[in-house]
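Standup notes
- DV: blocked on the single-chain target, sequence here:
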Amino acid sequence: MPTRTRARHFRILLIPTTLILALLTFRSFPETFNRNLPAGYNRVGKPKPLYKPHPGNPPPIEDNFPLAQKARSAADLPPIPSWNKPPSRHVKHSTPLFIGFTRNWPLLQQTVVSYIVAGWPASDIYVIENTGVMNSNRDGLLSLQNPFYLDHHRLTKILGANVISTPTLFTFAQLQNFYIYTALGKGWEHYWWAHMDTVVVSDEEYEGPPYKSLYTRAVEALEETLDPSWGPLATLWFAYDRLALVRTKAFMDVGGWDTMIPFYMTDCDMHERLWMKDFRIEDAQVGKVWDVAESLDDLGILYQRGEVEKKERREFLDSIEADALDKRKEAEVQKNSPAYKELLVKLDQLQAAKSGNQGGRNTWQARQKGGQGEPFYRDSDGFEKAVSMWMEFGRTVFAEKWGRGPCDIRAAGLKDGDEWKVVADWEQKGVQWKYWKEREREKKRKEKGKNER
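- DV (later): unblocked, structure below
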């Protein structure tokens, strides 16, 4: 074969051989490169996302009112003790009670049931669903393990209360302004509002005759404040603001709640501004109120002071002797019965557990971890973290607005109109010294300018 021909054949063979070698080298290079990369990087040298350790899921929650879960109507619920039943004819005043809800259905249900058993007309109770899940709860699309789950049917058809849903998720300050907005729309000159992590019970140990339920005493407290001698009342607190009566116009007159302070310190800001405008904030007693982070195992215990129902009699007769049942019935038809005293002990224990919780008072808000795959799903821990960040931001805004962090802004010498006008940390000696030195230098500069002219 001629030399030129052999050279041509060699070049033809060399080209694919070179391509194959290059391909093999290219394919093996990333793995060789990858072996030299630190953990957490992918094959092309980019870092992989680093995931936080999974905290694990808590035990699933259970419905805390089995009787209501099985009930077809309010008639299937235990009877309210006769001495706590609301009047057959509504009192002449409107008595709307707002209870805001975002997370933890068992606690909300406990609060609503406790007010009903304490005599508050169920038709006057308005649960404000502040979940941000649109119509998902109304349409039954969320499950019990979802933090934002709310049982519309239970509240409205079984318990007889009302549900109003906010158009989106509100902060605490925005929710309070929504109360005012709703009251204005319905023509209410006043309203009550309660925290959803509270339990109320009429005071059956009260010795003053005649006996009055929590609801009756709340109405009488309202009537008392209507006397002109009370002056410009803004709000009446029952156990601080665990339950509060609000005068709609008073809160309007100070411009409502400052939504730039979304959570903590917004109550301080609101109340201080009310006092600055010479409105009154007073305290009153209407019954027993607890601040809790857990629910009773069975809300039926809230009712257990009245006569045992016929339905319950049949159940008991299957398991205990008739004479034992008669003794129980005799004890429970009394006010301030042993069953009542046992309830108070249990609620005292729940409140003590909340105040002594090393994890904080509000761990109940992030207890449910479910809802994956459901509409508007939010990671429970992430939601809690975001709210905590927002809370801290609100404290910063309050401190900037009033120049100080503590709540007692009137006692510090601040007055209406001082907001956003005072120097930050103005109470500190170093800030005071620097401020007045600067004012002195400014004054000298102005005098020097006049003399030169």
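- Follow-up: The two ends are 110 Å apart (CA to CA).
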